[in-house]
Amino acid sequence: MKNFQKNLKFYVLAALFAANFFIWQAVVAGEHRGVLTVAFLDVGQGDAIFIESPTGNQVLIDGGPGKSVFSPLAEAMPFYDRSIDVVIATHPDADHIGGLPEVLRRYDVDTFLDPGVSSDTGTYQALVQSIGLAGVERVVARRGMTINLGGGATLEILFPDRDMEGADTNDASIVAKLVYGDTSFLFTGDSPEKIERYLAAIDGKNLDVDVLKAGHHGSKTSTSDTFLGFTSPQIAVLSVGSDNRYGHPHKEVLDRLLDFDIKILRTDEEGTIVMESDGENIFVND
Predict the structure, then answer these.
(1) How does the average pLDDT of the chain come out, rounded?
(2) Cβ distance 227 to 200 under 8 Å?
(3) CA-to-CA distance for 145 and 142, rounded, in angstroms?
(4) Does domain 33-284 have CATH number 3.40.50.720?
(5) Which of 12, 110, 119, 256 has its Cα between 20 and 30 A from that of 86?
């Protein structure tokens, strides 16, 4: 009896640990229920998109300017999760990669993808240094690559299809198509109209999607009539900062989207935009 009383504290702690373990097992199992999650993070005037596959694999496309990505990213990810499987920098402009050096310091990242175009900015140099310090595998994205995210979700690289070193950074933007079941998303970075037309010419049938991340924050240099005709999305997402100095999104783009009867969602109005797909339908969370 004395031994039991002496060890009672140990027994209670062991029981609590076991109960906590099984509770967290249930939580983790419940998170991945055959649903693909895509969150267009509100990072102000910039881009950052978080993807979680039906099996829990995660991708971060771009990291917004400065450290603006961390608050919305923390909301999108479970608080205990300190790893991201794949980080993609669509191109080396500061409003897309500003937060990525710190992402690589705070999270365990397996693979880093970029288009293979460099920049002489301090932001880009900081990113390159962070990749080296983190020991992350760096891969140059090329058309034809497909990332298997698990559970039937795939991310296909549509562009670049060539060496982009020396090209304009926007022209080099990675364009990627996310597919889960009968649902699909297209992420375009800051791709301008000439790249849109090129993709329409070489890959028009593969551009049809349900959700389009409008290029270059709704700039009039992207999201052309031709591209909208081939992509024919139900929803267009514009990642844009309130009262930004560029006047994004431009009226011409908004008018085009309305002409095509496409629902417009904007991060400057909605905040972070979270969508879920069960493979058949896409639901926009309130």
Answers:
(1) 91
(2) yes
(3) 6
(4) no
(5) 119
pLDDT digits (tens, 9 = 90+) for 3-31: 545 555 544 444 444 444 444 444 444 45
Residue with tokens 């629902």, as numbered in its chain: 263
Q: What is the pLDDT of residues 268-285, one digit of tens each?
A: 999 999 999 999 999 999
Q: What pTM value is reported for the model?
A: 0.89
Q: Which residues of 121-137 are buried (b: 16+ CB within 10 A; e: fewer)?
A: eebbeebeebbeebebe
Strands 273-277 and 282-284: antiparallel
